[in-house]
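Risk register update: the risk of archive-format incompatibility is retired. Evidence:
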Amino acid sequence: MSSITERAKRAWDVFRGRDPTLYGKNLGPSYSTRPDKKRVIYGGDRSIVNAVYNRIAIDCAAVDVEHIRKNDEGFFEDTINDSLNKCLTLSANIDQTGRSLIQDIVLSMFDEGVIAVVPTLTSKNIISEENYKIYELRTAKIKQWYPKYVRVELYDDETGRKREVTLPKKSVAIIENPFYAVMNEPNSIGRRLITKLNLLDVIDDQLSAGKLDMIVQLPYDVSSPMKKKIATERRQDIQNQLTDQKYGIAYLGATEKVIQLNRPLENNLMTQIEYLTKMFYSELGICEEILNGTADEQKQLNYRNNVIEPVLAAITTEMTRKWLSATAITQGQSIYFVQNSFKLVPIGNISKVIEPLIRSQVLTPNEARSIVGYRPSDEPVANQLSNPNINPMEQMPTDGEEPPEGEEIDPNEIPY
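Archived output:
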């Protein structure tokens, strides 16, 4: 009973426990839509191009990007749990998680061609200082280029508006789209496809505008200006009848005829769009199966190697060279991404793939359990790299060492 009373005393209701100081307080400008969210350029937001961009951005965001340390051989050693790694994995800013930041970077990069990722909150002034800690990151649009500076349009979460600031290139990650020639060049396949799709949208709007598409044949010649004026007035009269009447009924003269157009004249626009779509897919290295989720293992592997890897490499390499000092890079620090290859393996074949890795001492049993979604085992051997099909090495005598007293080892039982 006391616990219920204590909970009632300490509980806070969002509807009844509001801060009275917020009433009448200026909370800043408000919007009906999210002001910091990236909007795709006009025309690309309603086409297959936007679906392709969004698919690639989601797949890139699904890959873990971390601040890590490598060993002397250049292989992954451990993760550095600092503020920069928190921005990349957990919280990039007050509006975005680390995953949504990567998705925003990729989508903005595809749309703009070149974008900037700006450290908005740091331990030191990024204009004049070096070796600072990064606490928040945001994607920005580059408005002006200078020899050693860039002017960017950046969302300010304090005022709720976008502002333009000039920052040094050495402190800002400037990321260029590796598929710039395919997506962003003025005469690229991507731009031409967007233009054709916009033309198709215009035609569709015209066809769905409620037009009757009919011709009224009048019983007199309309070649003279006077007859044209009479014909125009007659046409307007028919339009008024159809508009003003409840059921859209109009009358015609006894000698007037109506010629109904069954459909508009055809063009080869759809054929051109289908051709450009296939070219767009082939130049990017993707296929329709990637978009609808039916791609097999080989197609997924090609997609990862030809599309996802170049995009993530462009992002992580630029972040490494701009935000990590020369000393940190010498010590093996890097911003790194690792794609989970087991996502390509069907669930029926996962055991066939994992078992040789455990036997070859590449994975521990607990690492294998985490891949399939099981919690780690408490057994000590589950964290050891060992072959479960042979006797543990600690039970075998090493070179020059005698077997324990009272025990004899059969040479035929020693594994080689």
